Amino acid sequence: MPTRLVPKTVSVLKEGYNLSRLRADAIAGLTVAIVALPLSMAIAIASGVSPDRGLYAAIIGGFFVSLFGGSRHQIGGPAGAFIVLVAASVERHGVDGLMLAVIISGLIMIAAGYLRLGAYIRFIPYPVTVGFTAGIAIIIFASQLSAILGLNLPEKEPGPFADKIAYLARFVGTTNYAALAIAVGTIALIIALRKIRPGWPGMLIAVAVATLAATLMNLPVETIGSQFGGLPRGLQTPAVPTLSLEKIISVLPDAFAFALLGSIESLLSAVVADGMTGRRHRSNMELIGQGIANIASGLFGGICVTGTIARTATNVRAGATSPFSGMLHAVFLLVFMLVAAPLARFIPLAALSGVLAVVAWSMVEKPAIRALFRSSRGDAVILTVTLLLVVFRDLTEGIVAGFALGAVLFIDRMGRNVAVSPYDDYNAKSEHPIVNTDPDTIVYRISGAFFFGAASTVGSVLDRIADRSKNFVLDLSDVSYIDSSAANVLESTVRRARARHVRVILTGVAPPVKAILTAHHIDEDHVTYGRDLDAAAALIAADADRPGENH
């Protein structure tokens, strides 16, 4: 098996794993588990499922992400980015359909890993990732408004952002101020602890304080117990969802969306971990590990799993040395579930909504947005379009449109970097100055990647100059790449020059470039190839010594 498809766990064991590393990983795993406990339940509730399904994903999925993944420090589990997709999938297909979509998404990710597609995820432009993350954050916050305000809604709130805001605005008068106080207090305490005691598990402390306050003061607020009846004390038995061809086809779009977003999120998280540790992850193995984790999570009733940036960063800062910290984080979560399940029923939903409000705010990469708006108008447009489409249309549409805009912007920038210009400094370097002193010879050079984005511009320049002399020398030594569109432009230029009895000499042509030109009939029967400009000058000088030679 190629090294890049070997889990990092295997690499760590080959290096030698000892008791001191286990101790460090156990401390890091416990730290991350304390962070993941309230977050996993909050994400599940916001996704339209019961909180235990978030814990199943964190325990089962998180364990397998670390066991089979390609990163030493990645922490897997439910992520806020999936809330919109999971909620929509539950509404369309029910929980059983969601589980099937999660399992299929895992198969897709495994296939992507074995097809070595992991490296291509990095081609998604940075403004797109910043834009869709900010868009998801806005949607998450909007989805929590009713719980934060404790609104008394007569029916389920609509999914689309604009419709949701308009609907909630109609019922602002039903605000439950006890729930609002719990949510605001939770947010304030988390923010305060981050500033005063950044090493403390602020989210867990805030939820515990909110639960204690709501219970002791007997506040009239919705809790996990009143809404879901509490948490089970343990994992459920693995089960395969109902299978039928019709059901598989119906959930396939959701599965692809889960796989795409999960791949992007997990590999971005792995890159963040690499930046913090100086290590390098194996992107294709990471996709395979994420795929296995999603299959396992779906079988145990958990929601989507991916690499989580915040929890992974916490893992690194807590001193993790290997994937065993991620596996221990899952074990600790299972212990918490077994021991503290009866207490979870008292947690106010408004407190968990406050947690997600903080998560949403943290997801918005404020410094990156400011930098993109200051540095490039094009990148700012990509970010804005992606964000607006994610919020008002659809996550997939936002990513596709942002990627397309990024590609067009890249093509435009690369096209502007291709230059065709007179080679004015050749005479000073050449042993054959006739190239620059002979009025019947013109020397031009093309610099840059010559492709379709620049073909039209370069072609118009070449057409203006190719018929003004007896000898047209075109230096391609600075052309590292040429595509069929550019080759077609050169073919047209050569054909036009030959019709006017102009000799065309191409110099410095790299073998890959020459192969493409030859395929477009720009061969020795139509042009002269020279090793370099000196060789071209020698050819022209030799022809000049033979008066009457037909060029």
Automatic annotation (TrEMBL):
**Keywords assigned by UniProt?**
Membrane, Transmembrane, Transmembrane helix
Where does this one sit in the cell?
Membrane
> Residues in domain STAS?
431-517
Gene Ontology CC entries for this record? membrane
Membrane topology, record value: Multi-pass membrane protein
Q: Where are the transmembrane segments?
A: 26-47, 54-71, 98-117, 129-151, 171-193, 200-221, 255-275, 287-310, 330-359, 380-411, 442-462
- Superkingdom in the source lineage: Bacteria
The cross-references to Pfam families, in alphabetical order and at most eight, read: STAS, Sulfate_transp
- Give the GO terms filed under biological process for this record: transmembrane transport
| Protein name per its UniProtKB record | SulP family inorganic anion transporter
Q: Which organism is it from?
A: Martelella lutilitoris
